[in-house]
TrEMBL record:
InterPro entries: SQR/QFR_C/D (IPR034804), SuccDH_FuR_B_TM-su (IPR000701)
Keyword annotations from UniProtKB, A to Z: Heme, Iron, Membrane, Metal-binding, Transmembrane, Transmembrane helix
Localisation: Membrane
Membrane-spanning residues: 29-52, 72-90, 111-131
Source organism phylogeny: Bacteria, Bacillati, Actinomycetota, Actinomycetes, Micrococcales
Molecular function terms, GO-annotated: metal ion binding
UniProt protein name: Succinate dehydrogenase
Length: 151
């Protein structure tokens, strides 16, 4: 039984619909843009946390509290969180599309990935925006930031 293959340079005939959104193209583009933004956000985060000021020895509850009390760092951290989780979820979706054998398996895995990404984004965003840098009656009051005593 002989099979004839198309010539490598033959025009590609799409069997998919011609109208609608090309989600694979937008996913591919998102991965490139978010990757560049993540490099900037992550290296900025590492530089500020590890190089500026006293370096690693300054990392404690007070340092993190001070950062999370500043709206600039809240937005920075949430942007990093959202971009990283969506970037990773999209990468996992691509792996599932490539390696899952049946449509049912693909659907289950992609639903699990989506659920995990959504739950982690919601919880992470809540932590960043509802973090209380000056907990009342804390057992570790000596670790509170300096500005807590002024309140």
């Amino acid at each position: 039984m002989a099979t004839t293959l198309e010539a490598p340079r033959s025009p590609y005939a799409r069997s998919a619909r011609k109208n609608g959104v090309n989600w694979e193209k937008w996913g591919w583009l998102y991965m490139r843009v978010s990757g560049v933004l993540l490099v900037v956000l992550i290296f900025g985060h590492l530089f500020v946390n590890l190089m500026v000021g006293e370096g690693v020895s300054a990392l404690n509850f007070a340092f993190v509290s001070g950062k999370l009390a500043d709206p600039f760092w809240q937005i920075w951290d949430v942007a990093m969180l959202w971009l990283a989780l969506i970037h990773g979820g999209n990468g996992m979706r691509t792996l599932v599309n490539d390696y899952a054998a049946t449509p049912l398996t693909r659907g289950i895995f992609k639903t699990a990935i989506l659920a995990a990404v959504v739950v982690l984004i919601v919880l992470g965003t809540l932590v960043v925006f509802t973090f209380d840098p000056c907990p009342a009656g804390a057992a570790f009051a000596d670790l509170n930031p300096k500005f807590c005593s002024a309140l």
